[in-house]
Amino acid sequence: MNKTINMIVAGPRGKMGREALALIERTEHFRLVGCIDRKNDGMNLRDLEGMPAFDAPIFTDATEAFDQVNADVLIELTNPHAGYHHAKQALIHHVRPVVGTSGFSTDQLQELEELSASNATGIVIAPNFAIGAILMMRFAKEAAKYFPDVEIIEKHHDNKLDAPSGTAVKTAQLIQEVREKHKQGHPDEIETIEGARGADVDGMKIHSMRLPGFIAQQEVVFGMSGQTLTINHNSADRASFMSGVEFAVNEVMNREDFVYGLENLME
Length: 267
Description:
- This protein is α/β, with parallel strands linked by helices.
- The protein has 2 domains: about 5-125 and about 240-265, NAD(P)-binding Rossmann-like Domain (Rossmann fold), CATH 3.40.50.720; about 130-235, Dihydrodipicolinate Reductase, domain 2 (2-Layer Sandwich).
- The chain is about 30% helix and about 25% strand.
- It has helices spanning about 15-25, 60-70, 80-90, 105-120, 130-145, 165-175, 240-250, and strands at about 5-10, 30-35, 60, 75, 95-100, 125, 150-155, 200, 205-210, 215-225, 225-235, 260.
- The strands form 2 sheets. It has a 7-stranded parallel beta sheet with strand order 3-2-1-4-5-6-12, sandwiched between helices. A 5-stranded mixed beta sheet has the order 8-9-7-10-11, covered by helices on one side.
- Helix 3 runs parallel beside helix 4 and helix 5 (about 130-145) runs parallel beside helix 6.
- The model has no long low-confidence stretch (mean pLDDT about 95).
C-alpha cells in the first residue's frame, strides 16, 4: 500500500483546480489537507457551494497555510504571479511543489531552483502535464535532427495569460539542443504587419492562437524539399493533464532537487 500523501491545492475553484480535487478524491493514497484561494479565507472547502465535500481549511495567505497545515505536497494551478509566491513559500516550509503554472521568468526559475537545493526539497514544474504532450516534445526533438526548418503553432483558450505557452517554449528549448541556429524563409523577408511571422527563437517561429473553444493544442511543423512532417497533440479535456499530475506527485516525494519538465521524470 502506498503511503498517504497530504496535499494542499492552490486554486481549488479554477477549472484545473477542480480536476485536481477530483484526482485526489479518486486516488486512495492522496489526502487533501488544505487549500489556498484568493477568496473564502477561514472557511472550509466542504462549505462552499458546488465544491466536493472535503474537510479542508481555506487560506488566502500561503505562509499561513504552510504554518498551520502539515502537508507533503503543494499542487499549484493558479497563475504565474501567485504560483511563484506559493511555490517559494512551499519550499521554505519543506513542502514539495508540483507546479502546472507556466510563465515564470528565468530569474524566478533560478530562485526556485536555488531554494530547492538549499532546503533539500523537491519541486516539479511542468509546462504541460499531458503525457501525450511530453511525447510530442520528445518526438519533435528527434525530428529536428533531420528537419532543421521548423515552426511551432500553439492554440489555447482565450483566458490563458502567457504567450507563447510554456509547452511551446519548452519544445523550442529541446529543439535548440539538437538544431543549429539559422534563419528560415526568404533572406529578404519583410513583415508588412509587425509580428506576422510570429516570435523568433534561433530562427524558428512560434505562433500563438487564443480563442474560445480550445483547451490546449500544439503542432510542430517541419519542412524540407518535397515533404513536411507535422507532430500534433490536442488536449480536448482538462482531465488529460491529471495522469501527469498524479505521476509528478508520486515522483516528487522521492526527490530533493529541481525538475523542470515532466519528461525529466519519465527518463
